[in-house]
Amino acid sequence: MGKVVVITSGKGGVGKTTCTANLGAGLALNGHSVLLVDGDIGLRNLDLVMGLENRIVFDLVDVVEKKCRTFRQALIKDKRFENLHLLPAAQSRDKDAVSPEQMQALCAELKESFDFVLIDSPAGIEHGFRNAVAGADEAIVVTNPEVSAIRDADRIVGLLEAQEKSNPRLVINRYKQDMARRGQMLSIQDVKEILGIELLGIVPEDEGILSASNKGQPAVMDRVSRAGEAYRQIVARLVDPSSPPVGMPTTDSWMDRLRRVFTVSVGSSGVH
Amino acid sequence: MFDFFSFFNRIFGGTREDTRSAARDRLRLVLVSDRATVAPHLMESLRNELIEVISRYMEIDTRSMQMGLERHEGAMALAANIPVRSVHRSSAEMAAVSLSPPPTARRNPDPEVESLEVPAASRPAEAPGRLDNSRLAARRRTRRHKRRA
Q1: Is-above-0.80 flag for pTM?
Q2: CATH classification code of A3-271
Q3: Partners of residue B35 in chain A, C-beta under 8 Å
């Protein structure tokens, strides 16, 4: 039996969906069977970030309301991976269409068939959030090194603990090492001390994330992407807690910059 | 390795202030009050337990007791205003016997506390931590009395 992991943050726009897509793709690349569940009913986006938006027939609400025979009918298989599926959110319904009890029952059923069920939680702390965490065994809290995102993350950690989702783990997204070095951004240590939960990974700011979502292709598939490298490290830690401790994926040295410039020009010349 | 980017930044971008510590300090403060206010039962149960502990030593006016978080120059403080009606004689004596501090540890009586009708027997029992609440309340009450006067 697999486990259900919810990816949540409180504040919107910190990178929950990107994180879910990348961890899912990364786990699938490592040979695990993965189901991504878009928990953001009414504002679905995981399908778009994954590049699977054209293949949706049934959605999460259809499954809960038993409009399709089994949940399998609603799953979209990602053809790029051996064993990665998406259960999209409903776009035309609102968050009240599903109850936490229904989500709990669904998650219990889903984890029978997959190693990992990753739930992309909506922003906020209301109904949608409660649905997304209801059936989760573990939680990953995504935040940015920025005061409002951290304040909201703290609130989320409190709510998760109140719901006995113990030991949520932290992903710090969009970290800018240069700014932190100049004292213009909260450091990793600051964020760790303030939130006081286990750090699962640090994802550096990377323009490649935008091009990845433009293409509908998670950055974790891109060998030269720094964010992709960070997600590969997080995946390794998710699978094996004894894997190397959290660190910045690569230092932003001259060589790295040169390599990236080189890679980008090679890539674009291929397009023309 | 020498970082040309930050070097040029420093030359052409001017000096930028350290905003990291401001972010850190502001977050720490706001999270103290956030955590306390989102959980009203936390303050409620703290209040009840405080009453229980203090009542072992003195009779307090729980109805006019006030307690809450206040901001004091870059730090959050738990401020309590607990009017003391009287101190139980037995607990005062017992504290005096079992906790009589060495002479050096005895603090100078707070002038504000001295003006109160707290039985003198309680004062030698100012074991650290034990009766600090009464001192706090006493001090606050005097202030209130002064204000009223």
Answers
A1: no
A2: 3.40.50.300
A3: 154, 158
